[in-house]
Structures are given as structure tokens and as C-alpha cells.
Amino acid sequence: MRYFICALGTLAITACVPGRPQIMERPAAIAPIACAPAPPPDPVAAAESPRVVSQEISGIRFEGIAFDSRNHRLVVVDQADGPGSRFPDAQSAARSVNGAAAVNAGFFTPENSPLGLVASSGKISGAWNSASSLGSGIWYETSAGETAIVRRESLGRGQAMAMRELIQAGPMLVENGRPVGGLEATKSSTRTLILWDGGTRWWIGCASSCTLAALTQAAATGQPAGWPVRHALNLDGGRSSDLWISGVIPGGPLLRRPPWNRPVRNFLVLTPAG
Hints:
By secondary structure, the protein is mainly β.
């Protein structure tokens, strides 16, 4: 597993997808901080089976699926012909690859192209997003099966292009166990996000309507998945939010897709590892 030295910088970025509120990271006068790497996972602890985890933290309802990357992995299901061209929702995308759960993933442009880089089974689509807060974070899986959430500056376009699976999204919500400062604090929306403990424990799911500032605090301090969050990344939300968990998962089935939701470009789907 790779760990990174991170720096908290100043970003001022807007979303370019019509119909979505602008997401701004207000400047924060914070000096770069050298962060210690996350402790390695306990080699003795057995890998946990996926399970539904739902709880309320500071008035925000978190619903999703927690899993261990030693026995399950995420894959990107992308639609080259645009949102809804193959899969109308997360459930149909998951079933296309025998997945047990799925959420909507990255943002997309008015022309239905990814708003950022995407890798699906090594196939690259979209373009490197070097400016928008909606591309400030990266979730990836290497060809060797290593997974992580990092800032785009820590990875860089060259390494990103070599990944087997990748979603560029944002903003970052939690970094090295600390809530990211300067996030928008007035506009509420349903959120989709991915959490990581820095080791082998992961969570994907949705949060009830809230601001980004409230979301980052709840994710950093409230343990939505039942363990301390080291890194968290915001995915596309609002009318794009879509969560499906199969009934084969303890606590399932679970479907969170309001009827007014719209089709999206790509999904993160949970499948068995190997």
C-alpha cells in the first residue's frame, strides 16, 4: 500500500456542470503539513465480509457498504456513449459485472464526457482535470491491485494514465484523518462519497442532504463506517446520487435512487477480488 505526503493548499474552483450548485473551496491560510503515514493494517486480523452500514452523525444520514480490499475490489463501469446509454442506474451497472453493490461515480460535462480522468480496466477516457475542485482528488487501483485515495498533485497525470481503475473527482473531504478546510458551507445537497481507513477498509455510499463543510466534519469525526476515516473523497451528488446494494449482502437489499435522479456517466461497482 502506498502512502503519501500531503499538502493543504489554496484552491478556488467552480463546477462546470449545469444545474449543479457551484462548489467552492474558499482560501484557507494553512501552511503545508507533513503527515505521517497511516499505520499498516493488522496482518493477523481477518478480512471482513461486506456489510451494510447506516447511521446518523450530526444530523446527516450515512448509508452505504463497508468492505475489505483483501477480498473485494471496486471497478469502474463507464459508458462511452454517455449517461444512460447502457445502464440507467447503479443496479443495472452492477449486475453487468456480477457486482454486489454500486454507486454513481465521477462528474461529467454538458457534452456527457467525464469531467476528469477515468480508467476502466485500463481503458482511459476523459481528460486530466488540473484546475477544478471536482478533480482535486483521485481514487485509483494499480495493475498490481493496490488502491488509494490521493490528491491529484501527489499522483500526477503520468501515473494516473497507467492505472487499471481510476476516478478523478472532488473535493477531498478528509485528508490524513483531518477535515479539509474551506469547503462550501451554505448549499445543501445529497452526497455520494468514498471513505478509506488508509489500510484495507473501505466504504462507498450516500449521505443525506447537507453542505460540504458539514459533510467533511461528520466524516472526519463520526466514523460513518464504524472505523476512523483517514481519507474521504466526494463523488458526483445531487440528482446524480445513486446507491444500490444487493440482498446477498448482510443488511441488504438497499436502494437509494429518488425518481427525479438522472442518468450518469459512470459507476463504482463492488466485486469479489481476484
